[in-house]
Specification:
The complex is a heterodimer of chains A (about 270) and B (about 80).
Chain A lengths: L2 E6 L7 H14 L4 E5 L7 H5 L9 H5 L5 H4 L1 E2 L6 E4 L12 H13 L4 E5 L6 H8 L3 E6 L3 H17 L1 H4 L6 E9 L1 H5 L6 H8 L3 E6 L3 H8 L10 H13 L16 H6 L2
Helix pairs in contact in A: 1-12
Chain B lengths: L2 H5 L6 H21 L4 H15 L7 E8 L2 E8 L7
Antiparallel strand pairs in B: 1-2
The chains are: A alpha/beta (about 270), B alpha+beta (about 80).
Organism (chain B): Crenobacter luteus
Family (chain B): Belongs to the MinE family.
GO molecular function, one term (chain B): identical protein binding
């Protein structure tokens, strides 16, 4: 049975696409047949982050409208044989994304033997975002330790609990996971940033992982390589931990502490 | 913030302000977003029924929905005018 996972946040720019790319790649690296779908109709970007932008021929809307088959539209990832990308359309209007159409695409993907279907949600709470989360079994709530991101995550949690298919059908609720990204432990120590515990306490969602703020993410997106492949970097290690925990492994949280600072710097700040 | 700032108690840390602001606004919004939309209609109909028997003002009827863990409490508060008692 395929598990459908939505990567969502409400707010834009918090790391949904970065997370979708690395999380899907991580599942594939662990041997699971995975597809990652870009639901951001009109503002396609997952293809760039995955480095497959020049291989896009057909997109999600073409498949929904039955103008192309899934086999024609799916792009095989360059790093993992068992990972595929289904890009978003750049031109069509968002109404092209119908509930029936999306449901059929997800069912066809499940029939093709995919273990995991990762849905990269657009920002906001409009149709694309609602379609991305509607069929989800599990949700990664990507949150920055910052007031507007935390508030928007709270809104999205409310929508998951009321508008998802599981909520509408009265089934077991969508399993929620909190993923805190762009975390800067040094700033937390100085009292300039909400801590992991603050965000956990406010949102009351089990923590799946913490990804530190890092220059690696920009370098990865420059190169079109999901950050999880940037071996040796904090971000890569953090995402590998996230995937391992998602698959049920017990791994201690890392990257929660700032590197040690000297006495002089502590006395005079800086 | 340096140790010297802390010794002189310079100012409240912004992370603490952020946490407090979020706790307040989210407690407010969670209640509102989850509220069923029949509350205004319920209030209006209650008003009509009560007005048949007692003369009350619209603002004397308060209908509130409160959430406590696993159950919801619908609180209807009607203030009767003094001279009716």
């Amino acid at each position: 049975m395929a598990r459908i996972i939505v990567v969502t946040s409400g707010k834009g720019g918090v790391g949904k696409t970065t997370t979708s790319a690395s999380f899907a790649s991580g599942l594939a690296l662990r041997g699971h047949k995975t597809v990652v779908i870009d639901f951001d109709v009109g503002l396609r970007n997952l293809d760039l982050i995955m480095g497959c932008e020049r291989r896009v021929v057909y997109d999600l809307i073409n498949v929904v409208n039955q103008e192309a088959s899934l086999n024609q539209a799916l792009i095989k990832d360059k790093h993992c044989d068992n990972l595929f990308v289904l890009p978003a359309s750049q031109t069509r209007d968002k109404d092209a994304l119908t509930e029936d159409g999306v449901e059929r695409v997800l069912k066809d993907l499940a029939d093709m033997g995919f273990d995991y279907i990762v849905c990269d949600s657009p920002a906001g709470i409009e149709k694309g975002a609602l379609m991305a989360l509607h069929f989800a079994d599990e949700a990664l709530i990507v949150t920055n330790p910052e007031v507007s991101s935390v508030r928007d995550s709270d809104r999205i949690l409310g929508i998951l609990a009321s508008k998802s298919r599981r909520a509408v059908n009265g089934a077991e609720p969508v399993k929620e996971h909190l993923l805190i990204t762009r975390y800067a432990p040094g700033r937390v120590d100085k009292g300039e940033m909400l801590s992991v515990d603050d965000v956990k306490e406010i949102l009351r969602v089990p923590l799946l992982g913490v990804v530190p703020e890092s220059q690696t993410v920009l370098q990865a997106s420059n190169a079109g390589t999901p950050a999880i492949h940037m071996n040796g970097s904090d971000v890569s290690e953090a995402y590998k931990d996230v995937v391992a925990r998602f698959l049920g492994e017990d791994r201690p949280m890392r990257f929660l502490d700032a590197p040690k600072v000297g006495l002089l710097k502590r006395l005079f700040g800086g | 913030m340096s140790l010297i700032d802390m010794l002189f108690g310079k100012r409240k840390k912004t992370a603490d302000i952020a946490r407090e602001r979020l706790q307040i606004i989210l407690a407010h919004e969670r209640g509102r977003n989850g509220a069923p939309d029949y509350l205004p209609a319920l209030q209006k109909e209650l008003m009509e029924v009560i007005s048949k028997y007692v003369k009350v003002n619209h603002e004397d009827i308060k209908v509130q929905l409160e959430r406590q863990d696993n159950f919801e409490v619908l609180e209807v508060n009607i203030v009767l005018p003094e001279n009716q008692r």
